[in-house]
Structures are given as structure tokens and as C-alpha cells.
Amino acid sequence: MRIALFATCLADALFPESATATVRLLERLGHEVVFPPKQTCCGQMHVNTGYQAEALPLVRHHVEAFESGPSWDVAVAPSGSCVGSVRHQHAMVARRYGDESLATRAEDVASRTYELSELLVDVLGVTEVGAYYPHRVTYHPTCHSLRMLRVADKPLQLLRAVRGMTLIELPAAESCCGFGGTFALKNSETSTAMLADKMGNVLSTGAEVCSAGDSSCLMHIGGGLSRLRSGVRTVHLAEILASTEKIGSNA
Amino acid sequence: MTTFLGSPTFHPGTGNIRGTESFPDAARKALTDTQLRANLGAATTTIRNKRIAAVAEVDDWEELRRAGSALKADVMARLPELLVQFEENVTARGGTVHWARDADEANRIITDLVRATGSDEVVKVKSMATQETGLNEHLEENGIAAIETDLAELIVQLGEDKPSHILVPAIHRNRAEIREIFLNAMPGVDKDITDDPRALAMAARAHLRRKFLSAKVAISGANFGVAETGTLAVVESEGNGRMCLTLPDTLITLMGIEKLVPTFTDLEVFMQLLPRSSTAERMNPYTSMWTGVHPGDGPQNFHVVLLDNGRTNVLADETGRSALHCIRCSACLNVCPVYERAGGHAYGSVYPGPIGAILSPQLTGTTGHDDPNASLPYASTLCGACFDACPVRIDIPSILVHLRAEQVDSERHGLPGGQDLAMKAAGFVMGSEKRFAAAETAAKVGRVLGGRSGRITSLPYPASKWTASRDLPAPPKETFRQWWARTHEDTTR
What is the distance between the alpha carbons of residues A91 and A108, in angstroms, rounded to a whole number? Predict the structure, then answer.
């Protein structure tokens, strides 16, 4: 299958390993990955902060980026949040400004855009991706994966099939970590209180690694764990699934 | 479509639906109160888990939710006609209907009605509408004592405190604190009372029983009003409501105009949705319904005051109006991670939590970004737990996003603030892949901030809001875009 990577602006700029791992994983599974070069950002931060007028050109840019460039069957992003934005916000923003044709085009792109675990389990029909990851891991199901996309336990199905890994259940897993985009700045103290509880739960598992399907949430949780000098690392789901015995690391 | 009920424009600021400080400022105080946070965390976790179990017992829960949502949408679409029908039926059965445009008017009408009875004391069923209008305070100013008879509401009243939860107003108090409140403020309480919940409940019961038997006037809210019959319904757990609704001679009910259902059978849907969502009970212990007056049985004078107080403004907003579908079950509060930490008082309004974050600013309107209610739509991470819990499927996250956009758009004519500039700049950079790539390259200068650890631990304002409690990774040596060009360049075209 020809799969277009929607890298997301955050992964592109700050967490490239989640995007490179997605590419390596899909290529290992025998698929062709293409990167529509015009892509930048889905505009979610703008929409969620109230700047829908500023988001409109970003929605248009995203749609054009995926309509132009190499052809593709499905698109994938290593982020439940950004896929949620494409699926649930792009057409809404276009319609708010009366651009029905953009809304229709956005719906077409959205209908073929998947979050990584959705793509693997629902579209490609695999749960065993040949990964090897000899670590103790706990998994945080991010809010937008869980409640905007309804990925349910697909990430866990994938993780349970990883060889060498011990998967430890995270207490109160479905509680938000407190990131929420600009919420982390606007309501910094409340965000920090939510983070403290999330970190306490992560540490209670004794895991070496806290994983999730969103770099943004991991940036928040990882930023807190780093400040505590806890020694627990945050690793994107894609990186775990891309790991193999042969490579042995996230090279 | 807009719906106009003929009420003049509501003047914002009347009633207890706007606080004095922004959500972040008010939350800051609650967050430092470790006892409060422990009380809230324990209580919401318990009730949250109980609700999940109670809901799981119902096979057709999703269908019920959809039915509740559809019924409420129908009510909103036909509100003027249903209100007239309701008034006709209440009047035909011997009740009197009054219309109140805002909180002040409602308080004035009710105070006059109480005065006319010659009574200077009223018993009250817990009512969000009277809290919204600040009725108790208004009655007190006019020399009328209003006695709350719901146990938690009584705790709040005796403690000279404010409710912090719709359903469990004293959720922020533990039993040791309640014992102290009773010792200080409850007349005739046993000085050796323990903090055993049963002992505390029995003391309150003895205190309230005296009030029920002497009161001539009761004031209630209403969970539902049935347009078809003019029937009102109150749902409660302690029996205090039934006492108030049946014993006094005069009963005055304050009801928000959105509380209507079209027909008596529609109650079937809500009587299933409400108890499981609010108290995690299959059925609430007391459901009282009354229709007009009946000689020799129950109150002989019955008044219902229909309250607008901003509701027609909410109704006029097609996206936001479903906030009026709320049946005040408080399920959204109990699942909200923000409410759980910040508590109810941080929301400023008598409607806290996710529903308060969309309802309060819509009811009052907002006067600019310094309006405390303008901060409420931002008091959420948009995690979506509230939408999943809502028994009438109010899409709270989408309405929050909508209200944020309205807020930003309403201030576009003024001088741009720091956030406006940041968002515009980010939009400019992200609007082109070339500019984005250039910005990524520029950001690599930030690698020096990371030092040897690769972690940035301190940044200037406003990024300091992040680094106060969280590290930030230094930008990587190679962006994804660069990695792709290095490893896949020939396959791009």
C-alpha cells in the first residue's frame, strides 16, 4: 500500500524519532511510504485556542499538501491528536467561513487519514509487527486517541504482541495528563497538578518507559519526569513498534 | 434559526453566575489547599466509578442518551409554544405563573409572594435556580430566613460557605470539618457529637424536623416541568424535598425556562438518565410531582416563577444552545480532571465544572478578556471525558472550542495582545513549508539552551509557564524533514 506520512509539525521539529520510526515500521511491513513535502501543521493549536480565522489557511494548506505531491492510498500520523483535528475540525473550520468546497475536500483527506494504531490494526490488519523491545513499559492512552478517535485498545493489542516487553497497566490510565495545548500555559498550575498525579501513577508501575501515541502528551509527561530526574523515559508507540532485535536501538 | 421569546435583552451581571477573578487565579488558591484537593479527589473518584457501574447495567444506555438529546433539541426548537402551553395548564389547575426576565426580577417576585403570606421563614429544597439568582441572600436582606433542607446544602449554609458542586455542594468538606460546622452553627446540637456520619445526619434530621413542622412557606426548584399537564417534578434522595413540597401552605417554585419537557411520558427517559448519571443510583429515593392545587391536600397556594436570566441569549446561538439541554446531573464535574484539581469555587459561578464553563459565559455574556467568565471556556484540556459522561450528549468540548473562537473574534477590533501576535506569527510560519523549515533551522540555536543534558529547564516568559514545572527537550540535530531528504530524497517525486 502507498502510505502518505503526515509527520505533524511537533514531530517534524522536536520529536523526529516518532516520524522516522513510523516510516521504518511501515517500510519493514512492506509498504511504500511517501512524504507530501508541502505539509506543515494541521492548525489544531489555532482552532483550540480560538483562532479559527488563522487556522483556515492552515486547513487549506494541509488539504492542498495532501492533494498535491505523490499519490497515496491512505495517510498516517503518529498522533491521535493531529488526526483528530484533521477528522473533526478541518471541515468545521472551512464551513465556519463558508468554504463548502474546501470542507468537502478536507473531508476526503480526513476519510483516508489514520492514526498509527488504527492504520495497523484496522487498515493493514496486523497486530504482530515483528517488534522486539526488552523493557518494562506502561502505556498512557491519550485523550484524543481515546475519545476523539475511539482507538480503544488497538495500541495495547500492538504492544502485547511485542516480544521481550513487559507491559504494565497504568493506574487511572484514562485521566488526562494535563497538557491540553495552550492549557499548559494558560492554566499552568492546574496543568501541573494533573501532571503530578499522572507522574505518580507512572512511577507506581515501576516501568522504565512510559509510552503513548502522541508526542505532545509525551512532551508534557516526559518534561515532568525529567524535572523529577525520575529516570523513567518517554518513548512514542511508533518507536517501540519499530524496534527489532537486529537494530536493537532506535537508530 | 433564531428563537425570540419576546423578553428584552438581559443585562449581564445579575445573580451568582460570575465570579470576581479569572479561573487560573481562583484555581491557584484551591490547588495549594492540600486538604481540599484530597477531599475532591477521593469524592470524585468514588462517584465516578459508581456511575460507570450503574450505567453499565443498562443495555440501551446509548439509545437513552440519544432519546434525551433529541427530546431536549425538540424543546429548544419549540420553547415559546411549550412555555405558553405550560402556563395555560398550570393556571387551569389553580397555580399562578410569573415570568422573570432576570435574577433581580425573580428575587423580587418571590420575596413579594413570601411577604404576602406574612411569614418570615421559608424552608427550601435544594435548587440551582435559586442559587443562580442569589435568592437566599435577597430574602435575608428583606428579613426572611431561608433554611436549606438538603443535608449538604445545610452544611454549606451553616458553614457560611459556597457550594462547590451541583449535586454534592459540600463535596469539598470532610466529616471532621462538618462536625466543626455543626458545633459552631447548629442550634441545640449535642456538644459531644462525634464525626460519625450517622451521628451527624441524625443531628441534622432533628434540626430540620423542627423547621418542616413550623414552616408555612416552601421554595423549590424543579427538575422538570411538563408542558402537556402543567406538572412539576423534583428528584431527590433525602425526603426533605417531599416534606417541603407537601407540608407548607404555600409553595413557590423557581424554574429555568429550559427545564420543560413536552409530555408526561417524556419523563420516562429522563428518570432513567438522571439518577444513574448523578448519584449512580438505579432510581432516586424520592420523586415528587405536583400539578396545581388540590383542596385539603398539600399546599393550597402554588406559584411557579419562570426564569430567563440569559437563557434566550443562549438559545439564540445555534452551536452553544445545547448547553441548555443540561439536566444538572453533574456527571461532567465528576469525570473532569480540571474540576477534580481546581474545585468548584474556581469557576466563580454556581454552575461549576465543564457544563459551567460553557453555560455561565453564555448566560452572562462576556465583556472582554478581563471578564472572569471569559476565562472559563479555556478551563479545559478538551480531553472529552465530559461529553462521554453526559446523559444528554452535550458536546461540551466542541462548544468550548466554539466559545473560544467567539471570544477571540469579539476582540479582533482592538489592539492585538501577546497571544494574538504569537498565534498570527505561528500561523504565518506554518502557512508555508519553506517558512516552517526555516523556522526549524532557526530553532536549532535552542540546542545550546539544552546544554549537555539536552534538556531545557528554564525559559523566559511566557514559556516560563511551561518550564516552571516541566523540562523541554532541546531541538534535535536533524528535523524529520531533513532526515527524509537525506534518506528518501529520490522517492519524493
Answer: 10
